[in-house]
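Entry 14. Structure prediction run on the chain below.
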Amino acid sequence: MLFKYHAIDQDSHEREGTVEAPSQDVAVAALQRRGLIISSIESTEKSSLLKVELPFFGRVSNKDIVIFSRQVATLFEAQVSALRAFRLLSAEAENKKLAAVLATVGDDIQGGSSLSKALARHPKIFSAFYVNMVNAGEESGKLAETFVYLADYLDRSYELVSKAENALVYPAFVITVFFGVMGLMLALVIPKISAVLIDSGQEIPIYTKIVIGLSNLIVHYGIFFIIVLIAGGFYLWQLKKTEKGKFVFDGLKLQIPYVGDLYRKLYLSRIADNFSTMLLSGISVVEALEITSSVVDNSIYTRILAGVVADVKGGISISDSFAKHSEIPSIMVAMTKVGEETGELSKMLTTLAKFYNREVTNAVDTLVGLIEPIMIVLLGIGVGSLLAAVLIPIYNLAGAI
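Output returned:
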């Protein structure tokens, strides 16, 4: 959003102009960091009932951050200053929310803030991992290389997570369609057929009685099932937002046959990749572990890494601390131990990350290959059994006539 302001500078001169920011509070904060005393500020955009900003459409995607990181790296390699780089990228960004954030970051830099601190003011866009990497790049004087590392890492992470999630979309869709079709048949088709069978007065087989019973249940109490389903879904959604609920759901996610193993490899890959990238950037082991624990996105592994941090601070090696937890496989413990003994921990972790990346890719490819035939067979058995339960008695009735 664009805001028009009137202010007084440090020399008591009146100033006016415009500033772009995602909200009025952010705009005021940016102007105050320039040493201005705000007398008035208002948005230049007229409100409209038709102009509704939906969170989903205003989000900054991982792809946007990858492109931004590569652009920043290119500009820094060309010796463009941080302020000018962010001004240019803000003007060119297609995502309006990202453009506003970059403009605010540019204002903060102009006000004397470091790049990492300016990025840290936007935690929803730039994670703790991202900010600490930039901070390490500032301290080492290798900002361009740091942004290349970040773009490469985010690219790998996005590709891996997308592949894993996309593999689960197909079975979820097929299962949803399956239950939808079965529900419609039980609610609309079976009642008409069951009326014919009941009126015929013939003996109805037990399996047909079960189908008719399910149909009557859905017809008469279906609305209550839907209400209970919606209420249950809402309750689980709210429960997942709590710390205890998230811990339970994250644990269950790892217990699902085959899929749990896929998620486990995904999290291990993320841990190794985060950890190695931060070590290569010169961040300390303890700090790298702390940041990795905050971005692994699974409560189980977050707690494990928090325990490892406490152990390392107490003088225990990373590999010995890893060995205490059954969720950390022996190969990761062994390679971490070798890395610690040889002083090549970051290289060993990079090797581990590549290994688990391949494991996730292979697991996803295998899952995708198995899902389609299994789903087709299950769908055929379900619909076929339902039809057979009502058609067989009808054929018997026709034969008797």
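Residues 191 and 216 are 7 Å apart (CA to CA).
Filed with the rest of this week's runs.
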